[in-house]
Specification:
Oligomer: homodimer
CATH superfamily of the largest domain in chain A: L-amino peptidase D-ALA esterase/amidase
Low-confidence stretches of chain A: none
Largest interface: A-B, 65 and 65 residues
Strand order of the largest sheet of chain A: 5-4-2-1-6
CATH architecture of the largest domain in chain A: 4-Layer Sandwich
CATH topology of the largest domain in chain A: L-amino peptidase D-ALA esterase/amidase
Order of helices and strands of chain A: EEEHEHEHEHEEEHEHEHHHEEHEEH
Distance between the termini of chain A: 36 Å
Number of helices of chain A: 11
Helix content of chain A: 25-40%
CATH class of the largest domain in chain A: Alpha Beta
Chain lengths: 382, 382
């Protein structure tokens, strides 16, 4: 069901972090001529995995090793040593220098790896085989309720991506974890430029709870086996894959029952549109109103209004709609209210805000805020 | 139980906005020589009440008229006309020009006042009598579960304040609504300077859900009847009254079961301390961890770490404690963990973060995030 991407190797299994579900993945690209690009969290408490990753040459990556269930964050010198050990193991297994391996680790913060148990588990794993991205998508899950995988073809090539992340989610320059593979042939410079443009519109445009992870990492690997591709088409395919992953992430947000897409148009520029869209998508009052299928456009207005620095936003120029049904400023008729309520009962809610200033636009993906989010996060234990 | 403040008049009652609870208050200072100061929300969607208030001379206020249950926000030209009508009625009742009356209105957004019903209710009210601040505190409540009133004496004078607000609460320059009265004699310039300094440390330091109201207003009135006071003592008394009100607001936050006080010290400056303290106090993951009495200092570290612009925050210099019990970087023993859990089961939780940079400090007041918040806000209807 998940298509294979020529030129990649993978290995997944349980190494004793979680009970018996997969908690370990190794994904490698077979040729040293492969291209790659990577972006990381900007957190000031980034863990050793991210710290090591920031030091390496992002265009010469040969693979990534992923541990799920333990973030190895705020673990001091021992945590850094453990990340180096994991990287060395992965390099040896894939037959490349340790410095070409990315380490990604998510889960509980502040707990050292159970290294002995992990080592026993890793020794018992089979040798890597042709990449199985579906298995990788499963192995990298933590509190995710379902694996996240998406693919598109572009010319003779294919793009397949996986992602995880359902809480502590407001990535800035990267999502929790996402890995993208392609057999397209592309230079590292072009790949980096295209990837950053795509990440800005996708992983940087999702927010589940406004909390930025210490471990966010997104990387793309291109094996080159399918030969060159049209760059415009490649960027479009990568954008579609990443957008699909981001929608999966948002709709699987902790406790979420609905995907919320906030489309802001008519802004001074895209940056202003993004600021306003994030303000709406992150507002607990908007998120709970959507959860209750309440067409409470007043809360959307509040969330626009609290962007206090934006003095060119004037109440009289703003328009607010849900799924194309205008809610403000046209006064609500009982019929329109009924239409809006019916629309808000759906699984996906689009909130449209036009600022009436210029042509800036941005779309942010989020989810509703439910009792489920509280239960998950009040009960989750350190 | 709530002391009387010489030189003030009030009137409260039901005028048909809510069912039969008080929903209307008028508070006036008797002498034209009184001093006053006021701060408002910075929302771009501020309602006509705040818009009218921003135009008037803040040092020459004679009173405030408060409607609870309807915010009169995003109500267009008719809403502005209704606010002017309310103000004129209040001026006539208190015997002063309409332009010396502040209008404050909170509740549902986007619904016009039921003017005819209100007028009938207002006509049936008794004449204003000596101020009853306890009755005012009750009449201005919306979803508050209890009235909020605090007082201190300073020299021969007294300071009594009331406040309301439990949701859509991250004031910037003012809280939802707070009115402070004193019989101290003080110049308008001194009162304004002192009030702004106090507001910055109190109402601007509370956050329940990071959502900024369209209607926030805080005002102080000084009748002067007690004669002059020492300014340092007056500021200290006002700070204590406002801090007490802010703690009442935070602990009555929608659905809240615990007051959270985030004390950041060792910052580059107070502004940095405030940024970090708000990041921690607003983090849904910190708020749910406190709700679950889980000493998850990793989430506090995450919330500090997501202040990405603060490049002088270094993980190795940060210390995190709960109620004086250090949690990071000292590795947790089972005994410390048990102590922390016991501490977190209390009604008030103090989270201490020292950044280890310089002497900047700031304290922010918030509350935990519970199923109750979701229920209140998913069910509340427009």
């Amino acid at each position: 069901m998940i298509p294979a991407v020529p030129g990649f190797t993978s290995l997944t299994g349980n190494i004793g972090i979680k009970d018996n579900r997969p908690d370990f993945a190794l994904l490698g690209v077979n040729t040293p001529e492969a291209a790659s690009a990577v972006v990381f969290t900007q957190s000031r408490f980034a863990g050793p995995s991210v710290r090591l990753g920031r030091e390496i040459d992002p265009s010469a990556l040969r693979g990534v090793v992923v541990v799920s269930g333990n973030a190895n964050v705020a673990t001091g010198g021992q945590g850094l040593a453990d990340a180096r050990w994991l990287r060395a193991w992965a390099g040896e297994t894939l037959g490349c220098p340790a410095e070409q391996i990315l380490v990604a680790s998510t889960g509980v913060i502040g707990v050292l790896y159970p290294v002995e148990r992990m080592l026993a588990g890793m020794d018992a794993l089979p040798a890597p085989g042709p990449a199985d991205l579906g298995a990788v998508a499963e192995a990298i899950m933590t509190t995710d309720t379902r694996p996240k995988c998406a693919s598109r073809t572009v010319g003779n090539a294919i793009v397949v991506g996986v992602a995880k992340g359902v809480g502590m989610m407001e990535p800035n320059m990267a999502t929790m974890l996402s890995f993208l593979t392609t057999d397209a042939q592309i230079s590292t410079d072009d790949l980096d430029r295209i990837f950053r443009a795509v990440v800005d519109r996708t992983f940087n445009a999702v927010s589940i709870d406004s909390d930025t992870s210490t471990s966010d990492t997104a990387a793309v690997f291109a094996s080159g086996e399918a030969g060159p591709v049209n760059h415009v088409e490649f960027e479009a395919a990568l954008l579609e894959v990443c957008t699909e992953l981001v929608r999966m992430i948002a709709s699987d947000g902790e406790g979420a029952s609905k995907l919320i897409e906030v489309r802001v148009t008519g802004a001074r520029d895209d940056a202003q549109a993004k600021l306003v869209a994030k303000s709406v998508a992150n507002s607990p009052l908007v998120k709970t109103a959507v959860h209750g299928a309440d067409p409470n456009w007043g809360r959307v207005a509040m969330a626009v209004g609290k962007c206090e620095s934006e003095i060119d936003i004037l109440e009289e120029n703003v328009r607010i709609a849900f799924g194309g049904l205008e809610a403000y400023p046209v006064p609500g008729s009982p019929q329109r209210r009924a239409e809006l309520q019916e629309y808000l009962r759906g699984d996906e809610v689009v909130i449209e805000v036009d600022l009436g200033i210029a042509a800036g636009a941005f779309t942010v993906y989020g989810c509703d805020l439910t009792e489920g989010y509280i239960r998950i996060n009040a009960d989750y234990t350190t």
